[in-house]
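Many introductory courses stop at the sequence. We go one step further.
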Amino acid sequence: MSNELEAFLEYITVTKALSPRTVAAYRNDLEGLEAASGRAVIELDTGSVFGALGGIANKRTLNRKLSAVNAFFDFCHRSRFVGETTRLKLAKLPKSLPKFLSHDHIAAALGTIEKQEWKGLRDYALILFLYATGLRISECLQLRREDLEGNWLHVRHGKGEKERLVPVAAEAIAALEAYLDAVPFEREAVWLNYRGTPLSRISAFKITQKYLGVSPHVLRHSYATALILGGADLRVVQELLGHASLLTTQIYTHIQKQNLRATVDACHPMSGRRL
């Protein structure tokens, strides 16, 4: 590993406070590029990078690796390791709407959960809580009891270690309290497995997959979609989701446009008619 790459990884770990998974992804992508090219990343020009990555057919995978290279060269430029920064153009991807579930679909699934035992109460509360808050699953699983302040949630471990406050619906609070009253362990962590240790990402995925057939992240999209369709301002949704940039939140404007189109088609007297 080159000294510049080592300095970059230290920067995103310590200064940027990116998650271990994200840091590992950057490391794998950039070390893989060095291995494929036989040279340090900082020595590569645009042609060399595309030559080393040219065999990648999946555009999303290619863009992830190109983004890692761009982040690395941006760091090198600001650290004066290089005189000019390199900016690689990403492959164009077809626009697609984020997958989401309707309120009725989620409510029907929640109605199938047996709540006689504490694990059923946990599953019910977890799904309802994810849908009511729009949390990333990593944020949700790190929750501690002290993070709940009445009907507000203090998210202390957001992406990039950014904190935010999120209001929680009363129904989700009631489900959470019922679960916490029934769980047979005294722990500061909110979400526990049958051994009384913190619930893992895999276990959380199995819970949402069992009842809804989707990953936990789809509930985050469902939360944002419900807000947008209800008329919420895009910047408010950005704040609630903890997005650093409004550009990330703008994927939901396609849903907003679809809703506007459907409203006009259903309500305007000229829709489907000719004068």
